[in-house]
Amino acid sequence: MKKVLIILLIGISNITFSQTMTGIDSVSYVMCDYLKNLEIKNDTLKINTLYEKQLYPYLGKFEQSQTQKIGQQVYYRLQRNCVEFRNLLDRLEPPKEAVTRITEKPKPEISKKQLKEFKNEKEFYYFEVAGDTTRVKMEKGKWTDSFSNNTFSKLTYNWINETEFELVFVESNNETRSNFSVKGDKYIYQILSKEDGYYQMTLNIPRQETFEKFKMYYE
Fold first, then answer.
1. Same structural domain, 41 and 109
2. Owning domain of residue 40
3. CA–CA distance from 4 to each of 73, 74, 92, 201 (Å)?
4. Does residue 129 surpass a pLDDT of 80?
5. What gap in Å lies between CA 57 and CA 163, rounded to an integer?
6. Helix H or strand E segment including 17
7. How far is CA 214 from CA 38, 58, 104, 138, in A?
8. Which of 92, 108, 133 marks a domain boundary?
9. Which pLDDT score, from 0 to 100, does residue 20 have?
10. Distances in whole angstroms, Cα of residue 141 to Cα of each of 7, 10, 189, 195, 203
11. Distance CA 214, CA 128 (A)
């Protein structure tokens, strides 16, 4: 779910991951709470205010050479940790394929035969926010995303019941995914139904009361 970073942050440096990620997640939660209480109707003004009041002061604590890397991490972790920020970005830059977010877990309407067909499939694809196609290989407990720019993400998966499986992030050389997820991050996927050419799915991030409906295509 790649988005365009509105602010241009200058400078790149190597930052010890373990020293920064706890702080980055903490500031993302603070920013999320601030956003929830921000009574501004204009979305452009809202996101600019969020940056000016929360992001810029945080980045000001670091050397200029560190700000781009840290800024990217905050931006993507805020997407992961904050539903309100994801909704805001979707309004500013609507996805090519609509994303539906619901707060009540839907009930699957898929037959055992269709579930078996899903589990026998090894290759799928889905569309990114900008419309790019991402290919998925799902086999023997390993899940690999192959992106249109020749980068990849690697995860593992484990079935937790008949219709749900848990994905665990391992690694990625894709800029968006490597900043959005850290090793060990978990995602719960549920298969709702089989339609013509795709499976209707939901994605849930543990401890978030939001389920994102999306399409996983097969050939």
1. no
2. 17-92
3. 13, 14, 10, 25
4. yes
5. 44
6. helix 17-36
7. 29, 34, 15, 17
8. 92
9. 73
10. 39, 40, 14, 24, 18
11. 11
Distance CA 30, CA 32 (A): 5
Residue among 61, 98, 55 at smallest CA distance from 200: 98
Alpha helices (H) in 60-191, listed in sequence order: 67-81, 83-92, 112-120, 175-180
pTM: 0.87
| pLDDT tens per residue across span 29-71 | 999 999 999 999 999 999 999 999 999 999 999 998 999 999 9
The answer to whether the CB of 166 falls within 8 A of the CB of 186 is yes
Does 3 map to a domain?
no
In DSSP notation, 21-44 reads HHHHHHHHHHHHHHHHT-----HH
